[in-house]
Amino acid sequence: MANNRKSIYSALAANLLIAVTKFIAGGFTNSSSMISEGIHSTVDTTNQILLLYGIKRSKKAADESHPFGYGKELYFWSFVVSILIFGLGGALSVYQGILHIIEPEVMKDPFWNYIVLILSLIFEGTSLIISVKEFNKTRNGVRWWDAIIKSKDPSSFLVVFEDGAAVAGLTVVMILMGISHAFGIPELDGVASIIVGLILVFVSLILARESRSLLMGEGISPETREKITRLAEQDDAVVRTKNILSTYQSPEEIVLVLIIDFEDHLDTEEITEAVLRIRQTVKHAFPLVRYVIIQPE
């Protein structure tokens, strides 16, 4: 989680500086795509703040109203971020682009736009490199897409997606802005804005899918279920593990329920001792399992 904060802070600093300069340049040059990029950076800045808030809230200690803690706060705020990317980032950029295609405005001298775009690429590219390095530390050689699907920490890959979308959007804007100015086709500025918006919509849908799954109670993988089953059934008191229920309360905390069929000849005290043994074995093998509830069947 500390590594994720490093990438979030770097993205926050980059987006905050870039957003202001994009709006100023867009206002001076009547560039729709530049204003869309300003909106994009503003949304990204807000997203980083919300992610940091979600991480802080997820660390809050358990209390009477939330006996399992507040870990799912991170998943909630990650989902909010995906909605903001879709609505304030993607939809507004597409809308802005459509308006400028219907009523195109001739761009003034785009010199300062290019300066801003080049600086933005440098800052966003640096932030992307940092976020990719931090994400690589968590995926342990697993393929990128598989690591994203298996990750239970949205903040680990959300910044990578945001920075990647930012770099892609900046590249599109720079290319189409140059063509628009060189050949006198002001509609291309609106097209660039629409493409930026569609990139953001695509990213938001992926992030919403992953955050929703975790928020709705995504459990451990089938491979982990199998390993826990074998661990439980190694105990002499166990006939078989009938079912395993689980949910991620946070990226670092799992609630596990084991429904176990014990030997018929065991008395209450022997079953209690077996429950304690199994709980200790599972928690030792899987440090992320914070709570182990065992239900004799």
TrEMBL record:
Taxonomic source organism: Chryseobacterium hagamense
Primary site of residence: membrane
The keyword Transport belongs to this UniProt entry's keyword annotation: yes
GO terms, molecular function: monoatomic cation transmembrane transporter activity
Alphabetical UniProt keywords: Membrane, Transmembrane, Transmembrane helix, Transport
Entry GO terms, CC: membrane
SUPFAM superfamilies: Cation efflux protein cytoplasmic domain-like (SSF160240), Cation efflux protein transmembrane domain-like (SSF161111)
All residue ranges annotated as the Cation efflux protein transmembrane domain in the record: 10-216
Source taxon at top rank: Bacteria
Name of the protein described by the UniProt record: Cation transporter
InterPro entries found in the cross-reference section: Cation_efflux, Cation_efflux_CTD_sf, Cation_efflux_TM, Cation_efflux_TMD_sf, SLC30A9
GO biological process, one term: zinc ion transport
Keyword presence, Membrane: yes
